[in-house]
Specification:
The protein has helices at residues 3-8, 22-30, 53-62, 67-88, and strands spanning 35-38, 47-51, 93-94, 100-101. By secondary structure, it is an alpha+beta fold. The N and C termini lie far apart (40 Å).
Length: 103
């Protein structure tokens, strides 16, 4: 593992990544500061909108990917983004009275 790969993941959260997915995961992690958020004017938690795709393209290109490989990495990042957004904004549970309830 290179120094850059070691720095990409915290030491206490090791996880297995299939070799075919390595470039996509590394690109996704490199995009960690490229998330778009909105902050409600009256307070409350941030609303996560997703990744800035222009920035994602720059990250992929700067990592040396182009052509079909870059397109596949971008598609993989979109899958990971959708999964992250589902965690950031889980669906609300609706009670039988029609009011939103906490899970």
């Amino acid at each position: 593992m290179t120094q850059a790969q070691e720095e990409a993941a915290p030491a206490d959260t090791d996880f297995y990544v299939m070799e075919d997915n390595w470039d996509t995961v590394m690109a996704f992690l490199a995009c960690r500061t490229r998330w778009q958020r909105e902050f409600p004017p009256l307070g409350g938690p941030a609303i996560w909108l997703g990744l800035n795709y222009s920035d994602v393209e720059v990250v992929i290109r700067n990592l040396g990917h182009e052509g079909e490989a870059a397109r596949q990495i971008f598609a993989g990042i979109q899958v990971m983004e959708a999964a992250a957004l589902a965690v950031f904004h889980p669906p609300a549970v609706v009670s039988t009275a029609g009011e939103q309830a906490d899970e």
